[in-house]
């Protein structure tokens, strides 16, 4: 969807004229802005405002993307919950059609949670949303190996940039957006989190300097390098 918006964003903006938030159960939230500028798609944060919020499962989202489930019928069956501008919901087909046309033109199919639309790198460098996008890919691929080393659930509260839950304890390791039960909660600023992930700031030193706050299992926090080292082959940090 993000690439489709990159390609035909202005046209979609003129037709939709609204901001849609997709809250996909167990797979994160995404903001599709077809109201401002040339349009954009990025990971949604708690502070983002949308004209329309759509809540649905990943399975049903993929079915709609593949034109196997009609949005209106899904709503009537209770498979999709809508909050906000109902009139804007009627324009959802415009967005889905543009995405399908892009995939047909360039090849490919709707992808699962492990391959969500990439959040654009903000001007000035890599930010936490991009780090988490890469981390999601790594967990989907090597989560079982990471879980054997970490054996815990880490909650990341990134000041001004959202919250993420990294489950490396359950049978099915996963990274999800939002707040869930965790063994340790790490609160850190966006830029400091990125610096730690890129190896430019030592997590222990950040804690000693008050740049990073910990709540819960302190020993688990010492395993952060396992998480960030797994990112290096992926992001070439």
UniProtKB/TrEMBL annotation:
Protein source organism: Phytophthora kernoviae
Entry-linked InterPro entries: SCP2_sterol-bd_dom, SCP2_sterol-bd_dom_sf
Pfam family, one: SCP2
Protein name: SCP2 domain-containing protein
GO CC entries: cytosol
Residue ranges constituting the SCP2 domain according to the UniProt record: 6-96, 144-227
Origin: domain of life: Eukaryota
